[in-house]
């Protein structure tokens, strides 16, 4: 397997950026963008310093009153047009995602489809920003709740989903009447420019306020401005637990709202009655897909002692068939890690696993090193562990799958829950009772819990997010729209009298 030349990647990305409407002038500056396919620099991009980020927040804040007062169904027409443009330029945006994040083409196209799907959901939501009417204890009174926009929504996103997670937040924030300032990962600035350009085109075509959305290209200093600026009513931040620990207290100190999507250490329980063919397919995609660089990637398999040996053999055999190489090649299933730091962390985790009694069954070896000197393609690893040791409880953002045995279901559920993170989990079983126990309040403690599918591949419509060190945030579907609005309780007195609640008399 060979990788394309950097010149070929640059030409492809340049064409895709132009098709999305990114002007050539944006591709000039000191902020370098890189491709993990070859490790080479793609373009220099003009960056934003702290002062320009502050000014951008000011423009978004100034645009908010006009957008707030625009009827929600009219706001929905913006995301409708945005979704149409994303559909039209799906391949262009996916090509940039592949070049910058290293995702195989199928997964990059799937990410853009998530963006299209959230636009569809948000369009419908624009006519369903429901409040409740409650019975009042006082005669001649009506008790109800209403929902109102917040103001400026700040978004900090990660490299592994360089556009989709932003769109989850932005589509809902916009139909809820907010304005948006987005600070993408430094590693995926080109994807951000392209995605933002399509939204800017939609804004122009529907006649929405020009300053209701912005992207800022910056190092962490730009994110710090979003965190600390009191004009940012809600900060939605996706990243590591370490990042969340830094961000959350600062936003709380100014009484801002925060929505966190942090680490995941996701497990699948494989029960004695599991369909192993189904389980292996679900496990391999969840563990090796995106080179293990999803927050929902499977990190642990907790397998019953009666099936663990056969399951291990099947997973190792399946890993041996995975095509590793350039994400632009049709046959590739596993592309590169994002950078050397990720590779180094993977190697350190494997060494620690062995030190803690683990056995590396396969993988962990770097490949294609001669063809891409600063690119890091690696064989996904399977490691048998004697117990759930310290390294197993830590999230390593790389394709390492730890295999642990169990004898009783309660033991397996306990192992599933005995990590600091709480994003996604799964059980493979043909026993309905086991499935129900896993989904019950005494079962998995994760925000996403699945039966007979893997831990990754969440779809628009269901709320996405997790508990514990994952941060407690919810994005995408269900009632996630409420994060972008503030509720107000209203009492209307039409009785002509003034009775007090709880029978209080004050004459």
Automatic annotation (TrEMBL):
Entry's EC annotation: 1.2.1.3
Keyword set, alphabetical order: NAD, Oxidoreductase
Protein name (record): aldehyde dehydrogenase (NAD(+))
Annotated active site: 261
Entry-linked SUPFAM superfamilies: ALDH-like
Subunit: Homotetramer.
Organism: Naumannella halotolerans
Record carries keyword Repeat: no
Membership in a protein family: Belongs to the aldehyde dehydrogenase family.
Top-level taxon of the source organism: Bacteria
Record's keyword annotation contains Glycosyltransferase: no
Domain Aldehyde dehydrogenase: 29-487
Gene Ontology molecular function terms on file: aldehyde dehydrogenase (NAD+) activity
Family annotation (InterPro entries): Ald_DH/histidinol_DH, Ald_DH_C, Ald_DH_CS_GLU, Ald_DH_N, Aldehyde_DH_dom, ALDH7A1-like
């Amino acid at each position: 397997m060979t990788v394309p030349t950097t010149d070929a990647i640059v030409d492809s990305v340049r064409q895709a950026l132009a098709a999305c409407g990114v002007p050539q002038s944006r591709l000039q500056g000191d902020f370098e963008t890189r491709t993990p396919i070859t490790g080479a620099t793609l373009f220099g991009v003009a960056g934003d310093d702290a002062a320009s980020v502050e000014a951008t927040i000011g423009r978004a804040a100034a645009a908010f009153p006009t957008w707030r007062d625009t009827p929600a169904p009219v706001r929905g027409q913006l995301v409708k047009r945005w979704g149409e443009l994303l559909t039209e330029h799906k391949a262009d945006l996916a090509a940039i995602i592949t070049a910058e994040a290293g995702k195989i083409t199928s997964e990059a196209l799937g990410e853009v489809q998530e963006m299209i799907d959230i636009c569809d959901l948000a369009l419908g939501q624009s006519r369903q920003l429901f409040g409740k009417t409650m019975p009042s204890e006082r005669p001649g009174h009506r008790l109800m709740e209403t929902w109102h926009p917040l103001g400026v929504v700040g978004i900090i996103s990660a490299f592994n989903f360089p556009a989709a997670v932003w769109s989850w937040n932005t589509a809902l924030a916009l139909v809820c009447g907010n304005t948006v300032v987005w600070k993408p990962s430094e590693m995926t600035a080109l994807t951000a420019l392209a995605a933002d350009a399509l939204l800017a085109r939609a804004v122009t075509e529907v006649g929405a306020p020009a300053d209701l959305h912005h992207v800022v290209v910056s190092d962490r200093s730009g994110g710090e401005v979003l965190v600390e600026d009191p004009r940012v009513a809600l900060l939605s931040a996706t990243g590591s637990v370490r990042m969340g620990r830094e961000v959350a207290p600062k936003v709380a100190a100014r009484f801002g709202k925060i929505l966190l999507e942090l680490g995941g250490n996701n497990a699948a329980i494989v029960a004695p009655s599991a369909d192993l063919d189904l389980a292996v397919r679900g496990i391999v995609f969840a563990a090796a897909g995106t080179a293990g660089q999803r927050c929902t990637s499977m990190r642990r398999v907790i397998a019953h002692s009666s099936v663990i040996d056969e399951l291990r053999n099947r997973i190792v055999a399946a890993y041996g068939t995975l095509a590793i190489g350039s994400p632009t090649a049709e046959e590739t299933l596993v592309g590169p890690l994002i950078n050397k730091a990720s590779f180094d962390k993977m190697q350190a985790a494997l060494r620690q696993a062995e030190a803690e009694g683990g056995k590396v069954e396969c993988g962990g070896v770097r490949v294609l090193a001669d063809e891409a000197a600063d690119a890091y393609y690696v064989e996904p690893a399977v490691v048998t562990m004697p117990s759930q040791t310290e390294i197993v409880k830590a999230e390593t953002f790389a394709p390492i799958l730890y295999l642990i045995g169990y004898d009783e279901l309660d033991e397996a559920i306990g192992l599933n829950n005995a990590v600091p993170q709480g994003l996604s989990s799964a059980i493979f079983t043909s026993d309905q009772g086991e499935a129900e126990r896993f989904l019950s309040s005494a079962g998995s403690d994760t925000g996403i819990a699945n039966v007979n599918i893997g831990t990754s591949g969440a779809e628009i419509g269901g709320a996405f997010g997790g508990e514990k060190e994952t941060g407690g945030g919810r994005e995408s579907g269900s009632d996630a729209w409420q994060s972008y609005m503030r509720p107000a309780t209203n009492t209307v007195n039409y009785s002509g009298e003034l009775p007090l609640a709880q029978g209080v008399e004050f004459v």
